[in-house]
Design brief:
- This protein is of the alpha+beta class.
- The chain contains 14 helices and 24 strands.
- Strands 3, 7, 8, 9, 10, 11, 14, 20, 21, 22, 23 and 24 form a 12-stranded mixed sheet that branches. A 5-stranded mixed sheet has the order 16-15-17-18-19, sandwiched between helices. Strands 4-6-5 form a 3-stranded antiparallel sheet.
- The two termini are 30 Å apart.
- The model has no long low-confidence stretch (mean pLDDT 96).
Length: 481
């Protein structure tokens, strides 16, 4: 029945597009490179958003909103920043039937306009820290768009903070990286490697960039979220200065951090199979679907449907509003009804047929493993939440085992090159090269880059396999999206 999905082994890129289409997550918009996020996809994004937003607020951040249009002179104030984003910028030159005196850039990110506003709001050490996040859309003109992974317009959150000291700013940078790791692993079931980016992969204008790297089911890496220590670069460019407690005039230390709808792409490529989407219960728009099935319409409508609705109401009190739905697509054949929910990644299916009605049971089918069995009506309120937790944990464990089994260790450059070109996956190696060295490695390996220097293993030291330098840090190399 999965005839509308290309097998993953046959064409991974087409499989990815087919899963998104079959699950009704998104579609291409009339404007090249843009996408329309469909209701199922947006409900998934809302769930992801809520998990992150709750943690942001628990760590003292507040939400605000900044304009989508930025004067081009703002980007030019920070040289590294404008150089990094210039090829991706969309520029507005005319409005209201007239040519603008100064072109406006559709925000690729908001460090510049937020830096301008912070310079107005911050005067004294008492005004610090400033801890602001915004949920917004941004635009980066993509030459090779792919739904969720790289589109010209996408949704994200971007946090921007200002601090009195470098130590506070670095603490904030690492705190938000940990928040990202926590949500990605605990809610999205995505095993991540928190680490620091190399100089060649650093965010334009940042002193240091930290990342959460994930492995997709084709063994390529995906940057799932980043947190940047911006130093005083943007503070100096936009005069975010304040009077210290000692009375001296100081520049603030700033950070920025963000995750985007790219996470939906990560979910698709980490968990799904050739039948369609598979979703972790904690972010799934629907965690379980109840399906009354009978050829006797009277019995179905008068006995099965009321019971199904009662059970859904009972489970929603335990799991949360709208976590469980009742399928009433009675115009469809049972097999087609099953498959519509399977392709949308609903974690658990509960079937109520003639036999189940008589036995006071529900037949369950797990999306992650295909396991089938029966649950008694009286135990549903305890067994269904338990099973959903098992699915959540199993998806994380399966993805983590996959990453571990596709992580190799290289002791020479030739060995690393062979691993990256022939096998793929993550390759561990010691590295202390320059951005130019990184470019060379990318060319000779067909696109592999330094994904990160893992923070958990920052004390490991060895000889750089490319330059021969001593005391090199352990790096993760991989091809990526």
């Amino acid at each position: 029945m999965a005839r509308n999905i290309t097998p993953r082994e046959q064409d991974y890129s087409q499989w990815y597009q087919d899963v998104i289409k079959a699950a009704e997550l998104a579609d291409y918009a009339p404007v090249r490179g843009c996408m329309v996020i469909r209701p199922t996809g947006y409900a998934l994004w809302e769930n992801i958003q809520q998990h992150f937003d709750r943690r942001f607020k628990e760590t003292g951040h507040v939400n605000a909103y900044f304009p989508v249009l930025i004067p081009i002179s703002f980007l030019e104030k920070e040289a590294q920043h404008v150089e990094g984003f210039a090829p991706e910028c969309a520029v507005v030159t005319h409005a209201g039937g007239e040519e603008l005196e100064e072109p406006l850039v559709v925000r690729p990110t908001s460090e510049t306009v937020i830096g301008h506003m912070y310079s107005k709001w911050v005067q004294s050490w008492r005004d610090l820290p400033v801890l602001i996040n915004q949920w917004a859309n941004v635009m980066r003109w993509e030459k090779r768009p792919r739904l969720f992974l790289r589109t010209s317009e996408f949704l994200w959150q971007e946090g921007h903070t200002a601090h009195a000291t470098a130590e506070e700013a670095m603490e904030e940078t690492l705190l938000m990286l940990e928040v990202y790791r926590e949500i990605m692993e605990e809610k999205l079931a995505l095993p991540v490697l928190p680490g620091e980016k190399s100089e060649g992969e650093r965010f334009p204008g940042a002193d240091r960039t930290f990342t959460c790297e994930t492995m997709m089911s084709d063994t390529k890496a995906l940057q799932a979220g980043t947190s940047h220590f911006l130093g005083q670069n943007f503070a100096k460019a936009f005069d975010i200065s304040f009077q210290s407690q000692e009375g001296s005039l100081e520049y603030a230390w700033t950070t920025s951090w963000g995750v985007s709808t790219r996470l939906i792409g990560a979910l698709v490529m980490t968990h799904s199979d050739n039948d369609g989407l598979i979703l972790p219960p904690r972010v799934a728009p629907v965690q379980a679907v109840i399906m009354p099935i009978s050829t006797d319409e009277r019995r179905r409508d008068e006995e099965m449907l009321p019971l199904a609705k009662h059970v859904a109401e009972m489970l929603n009190k335990v799991l949360g509003p709208r976590a469980v739905m009742v399928d009433t697509q009675f115009h469809m054949r049972p097999g087609d009804r099953f498959f519509s929910h399977l392709q949308k990644g609903v974690p658990l299916r509960l079937e109520l047929g003639e036999r189940e009605l008589q036995d006071k049971t529900f037949r369950f089918v797990r999306r992650d493993s295909g396991e089938k069995g029966f649950l008694s009506l009286e135990n549903l309120s305890t067994e269904v939440p338990k099973m959903l937790e098992e699915i959540q944990c199993q998806l994380y464990t399966r993805a983590l085992d996959f990453r571990k089994s596709h992580t190799l260790r290289a002791s020479s450059f030739d060995e690393m090159k062979a691993m990256l070109t022939e096998k793929g996956g993550f390759v561990e190696a010691f590295f202390a090269g320059s951005p130019e060295d990184e470019k060379t490695i990318k060319e000779v390996t067909g696109g592999a880059t330094v994904r990160c220097f893992p923070l958990a293993r920052k004390d490991e030291r060895g000889t750089c396999l490319f330059t021969g330098k001593k005391d090199a840090s352990l790096a993760i190399f991989a091809k990526s999206y």
